Amino acid sequence: MRRLDNQPVWYIALMIFSGLPLFLSIYQIFQMNWLGVTIIDNTYMYIMLAGYLSLVFVLYPAKGSAPHDRVPWYDICLFAICAAICIYFAAHGMKIRHSGWEYVAPWLPTLCSVLLCLLVLEAVRRVTDIAMLIMCIILTIFPMVAEYMPGFLAGPSYDPLTAARLFAMGMSGILGIPLYTVATLLIGFMLFGVVLMKTGGGEFFFKLAQSMLGTSRGGAAKISILASTFFGSISGSTVSNTLTTGAMTIPAMKRSGFSPHYAAAIEACASTGGPIMPPVMGAAAFIMASFLNVPYAFVVVGALIPALLYYLGLYVQVDAYAVKADLKGLSRAELPSFIQTLKEGWQYLFVIVVLVYLLLTLKLEERAPFYASATLLLLAACKKRSRLSLRKIVELIVDTGKVVVQLVAILAAAGMIIGGLSFTGVALSFSGEIVRMVGGHILPMLIVGAIASFILGLGMTITACYIFLAIVLVPGLVEFGIDPLAAHLFVFYWGVLSEITPPVALCVSAASGLAGSDFMKSGWTAMRLGAVKYIVPFFFAYNPALLTHGTAWEVTYTVFFAAVGVISLGSALEGYLIGVGIIKNWYVRAALFCGGLLTAFPEGYTTIVGVGVVLGVALIGYFMAAREAQRSPA
Q1: What domain range includes position 561?
Q2: Measured between alpha carbons, how far is 537 from 544 in angstroms, rounded to an integer?
Q3: Long-range contacts made by residues 351-354, C-beta under 8 angstroms, separation at least 24?
Q4: Nearest to 506 by CA among 458, 469, 454
Q5: 3-class DSSP state for residue 174?
Q6: Average pLDDT score over the chain
Q7: Span 155-192, pLDDT tens digits
Q8: How many Cβ atoms are within 10 Å of 205's Cβ, its own excluded?
């Protein structure tokens, strides 16, 4: 990303093009109407594109060798063309809606449609990678050749100009659910995340984690887990979470005795929990709520228990490693005071409580982050240390714009992916074909879904991967009787797994760079530490009680045994069981692993068998440890 701080003209442009859409979003979401103007949805989204999509060509160079300290003439041209096209469409929003321009339009809006499609493709190339671009190009061309495709891929075709109009002016293309979600929901949460960081929230949560877990064995790694949980649950990002918290936690872990590859793996696994951890989670969770047509609070509540199980498994393994390596915690003198930390930063916890209350109780999904941001800014103004000057407010607007710019480019392209599948009707036939192939069996369908999610996650962003699979695969899972939220979360979880799984493993790559460790060694360690994330999706797919869908007894029973199973799995993977000690025999660890799987699996008879196996292994391990202690010299 280009730095524009030393270019006053472009910095002012960045402030204006970031600030005006942000102001407009507040105007639209709060339905102010004090300007005497009612803005229809497509006009509103075109203005958002004019502000944020056009900035892609200013902030992101065309290629790595392009100048990063100035904006070349061709990027200025693309910036101006993009802004002009989007403003033209915004000015004709009513005519587009009522005159059917997506099917038949004059030559100028048709030309603008073609150019806008090309600009979106170029924008997504700049902010992501070639794999995402290739996927977008294939599905952009697909509606033009669908009638020539074989079998279930066949569908109605459109000429290139009609296809371009559908993509640019239809409500199932660029202006589809992904971009609408950004414009109505996500922009507020992106603002809240930036406000939290600008007022010192990141530092507070790190100090809070230090004060809570620093003195425990392996405390530096546990700080990493808790700090990344706090940060990731707000930011919803993975790599940025790794780079932000990892810069502080990885050196601390290495100083306390953790090997570089293990420290990198811990941070990578902790950071990849961000997109699955409420209350914010990330872009995909908001789009999930839109696909399901449910309040965002419904997704938040359902996603909480699986996320906690994932972090429980990670914590158990870190604790076991600390015992085996005899790693002590940090001294209290090295750590901040818990009470003093709360006194200095209570407002950050208070505003999180406010946000959760607004989301879960008052159901104000669109307005909640703006109220929370305003509350935090008012509280921050009461303290000199966190008070924002005029310059910092400008930086806040600019930083929010930088975050939203990348998201808008990705989700505008994701809208084209949805459009390419929707215009031809292939999305439903594709899902039906997968159902037919697996022969009506749930487990093969879940395995196919897991593999497809993982492979797509290797080459696409988490959000784009989820959107594609929500269109082509989730309907098939739901057809099998799987709970709709469970189906969506299943493909989402498996899409996120590519972040810690070699050969791509972007979070591991970032963490190993900070730790100075071998990438592949860190990657395999991260896979082991994050093993619960590979398994939990199968659990809640079979029993949605893990998503709180059931009676109070069903949820309590299922969650309790799932937690016991996850503790057993983590203990088996690391070779240490609380109350028993270190388990060296691989066959005992294998039995404990199988017992943990059976215990956590949400079916009555498997749980009973699993508990029996775990208890048996615990007894065997205890007697083996006692015998070894007797043989050891005093």
Answers
A1: 550-634
A2: 10
A3: 351/196, 351/375, 351/376, 351/379, 352/234, 352/279
A4: 458
A5: coil
A6: 87
A7: 889 999 999 999 999 988 999 999 999 999 889 999 99
A8: 26
Q: Residues 6 or more apart from 6 whose CB is under 8 A from it?
A: 69
Q: Answer for the pair 209, 227: CB distance below 8 angstroms, yes or no.
A: yes
Q: Tokens at residue 500, please?
A: 């810690």
Cβ-based burial of 630 (10 A; exposed 0-12, middle 13-18, buried ≥19) = exposed
The per-residue pLDDT for 451 is 86
Determine the Cα–Cα distance for residues 568 and 597; give it in Å rounded to an integer: 8
pLDDT digits (tens, 9 = 90+) for 201-235: 888 988 999 999 888 988 889 998 988 888 777 76
The Cα 455–Cα 451 span in angstroms is 6
* Confidence at residue 312, expressed as pLDDT on a 0 to 100 scale: 94
pLDDT, tens digit, 9 for 90 and up, residues 110-154? 999 999 999 999 999 999 878 788 889 998 999 999 988 887 788
Q: Judge contact between 220 and 402, C-beta under 8 A.
A: no
- pLDDT one-digit tens code per residue, 42-76: 999 999 999 999 999 999 998 866 667 788 999 99
626 in a domain, yes or no? yes
Enumerate the H helices of 256-295 as residue ranges. 260-271, 283-292
Q: Which two tokens stand for residue 193?
A: 């995340």
Name the residue with tokens 């050969």: 503
DSSP-derived secondary structure for 313-338: HHHHHHHHHHHHTT-----GGGS--H
User: pTM (2 decimals)?
Assistant: 0.89
How far apart CA 409 and CA 132 sit, in angstroms, is 11
For residues 335 and 228, what is the distance between their CA atoms, to the nearest angstrom?
18
Greatest Cα pair distance in the chain? 93
Helix (H) or strand (E) run with residue 577 in it: strand 576-577
Taking the C-alpha atoms of residue 478 and residue 537, their distance in angstroms, rounded to an integer, is 15
The whole-angstrom separation of Cα 196 and Cα 624 is 51
If one compares 616 and 338, the residue with the highest pLDDT of the two is 338
Q: Which residue has the tokens 């050196």?
A: 251
* Phi (first) and psi of residue 271, to 5 degrees: -70, -35
Q: Quick one: which of 375, 407, 439, 434 has its CA closest to 201?
A: 375
Cα 49 to Cα 90: distance, rounded to the nearest angstrom: 10
H/E stretch holding 534 reads helix 531-542
Residue 412 lies inside a defined structural domain of this protein:
no
Q: Is residue 588 one of the residues assigned to a domain?
A: yes
Secondary structure (3-state) at 581? strand
Instruction: Report whether pLDDT(634) > 60.
Output: no
- On the CB side of 433, CA atoms within 13 Å amount to 11
Q: What separation, in Å, do the N-terminal and C-terminal C-alpha atoms of the chain show? A: 62
**Nearest in space to 323 (alpha carbons), one of 583, 590, 593:** 583
Cα→Cα distances 229→286, 311, 547, 575, Å = 19, 8, 19, 25
Q: Tokens representing 342?
A: 């709360």
The upper half-sphere exposure of residue 572, i.e. CA atoms within 13 Å in the direction of its Cβ, equals 24
Is the distance from CB of 29 to CB of 189 less than 8 angstroms?
A: no
Residue 157 inside a domain? The answer is no
Q: Structurally, how many domains does the chain consist of? A: 1
AA identity, residue 124: V
Q: What crossing angle do the helices spanning 462-472 and 390-422 adopt, rounded to 10°? A: 30
Q: Cβ(513)–Cβ(283) under 8 Å?
A: no
* Cβ pair 278, 536 in contact under 8 A: no
- Tokens 């992501």 sit on residue: 128
Please answer whether residues 447 and 197 qualify as being in contact, where contact means their C-beta atoms are separated by less than 8 angstroms.
no
